[in-house]
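Write out this protein's structure.
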Amino acid sequence: MSVIHVSEGADSDIDNIISILESDKGSIDYLGVASDSDPLAFPDLYKMIKQVKPRGLKVMIITDGRDPGNLDDLIGAGYAHTLDLLIGREITDDQRRCISILNDNGLKYAVTVNAWEHDKDSISAIAKECEGCCMFIFRQDKSKPLNRNEMSPLTSAAKACTWNVKTI
């Protein structure tokens, strides 16, 4: 996956992005779109994806799911094919709507959480609402990662929604 980072007010070198994506499109399976805040809130996201996405390349939006309406529009236009949903301690109503939109359109999605923010109960609650996600990802704090014994109940709880559980 090749990830482009969008931010409001910053000029992207569209020609450079297009050149890199075109030259590497044979080795890239997805174009990931990320941002410091939420790419779904980026006002020109649709236009930017339309400009840079090579034909045939799928797009993954890496988002905390604050704007399900934009997600629905991007999916409807064929400019979003999957999602990596960044979830905090609990799932928000907007995130529930994003999951519903993805499920209604038959699209796969991954869930990413910060491992250190959770316990078995919070992961169980998220897993229950994300049943059918294609991957559950735990991000570790690089300076103080949870050990195997601390991670074990979390990964077990996550397996209620998918067999594909990763720790990064």
